[in-house]
TrEMBL record:
InterPro entries: Arsenate_reductase, Arsenate_reductase-like, Thioredoxin-like_sf. GO terms for molecular function: arsenate reductase (glutaredoxin) activity. This is Arsenate reductase. CDD domains: ArsC_ArsC (cd03034). PANTHER family: ARSENATE REDUCTASE. The keyword Amino-acid biosynthesis does not apply. Keywords: Oxidoreductase. The gene is arsC. Belongs to the ArsC family. It comes from the Bacteria.
Length: 120
């Protein structure tokens, strides 16, 4: 299991606390420092079953500067969204947990983290 975190994020810290309390084995990826490539983002999106706009933090200053709220949310624009996430990792929703069974979850709630645990 791998968890993408921003250490300054309380949801990320909460997810780590829960994983630790459950004795889970996991790898931490500080994705603002170890920025995922566009291909890695595509892979995580496939594992999540989501589209890039579903995991974009549209309220971030960078998102507002880019104007992502006004971008089309369709297949033709998918690549543009993914490239933006790769170029501006602050826009990626957190924490993202990839489970051992090939799936992933956005671990913003205790239930979501427990779901990832049940899959590993």
């Amino acid at each position: 299991m791998e968890i993408w975190i921003n250490p300054a994020c309380s949801k990320c810290r909460g997810a780590l606390d829960l994983l630790d309390a459950e004795g889970a084995r996991y790898t931490v990826r500080r994705y603002l420092e170890d920025v995922p490539s566009a291909d890695e983002i595509r892979d995580v999106l496939d594992r999540l079953g989501l589209e890039p706009w579903d995991i974009t933090r549209t309220q971030e200053a960078e998102a507002k500067e880019l104007g992502v709220k006004d971008w089309p949310r369709d297949e033709a624009s998918r690549g543009r969204w993914i490239e933006a996430l790769a170029a501006h990792p602050k826009l990626i929703q957190r924490p993202l947990i990839t489970a051992d069974d090939g799936t992933a979850v956005v671990g913003r709630s205790e239930e979501a983290v427990r779901e990832a645990l049940s899959r590993s």
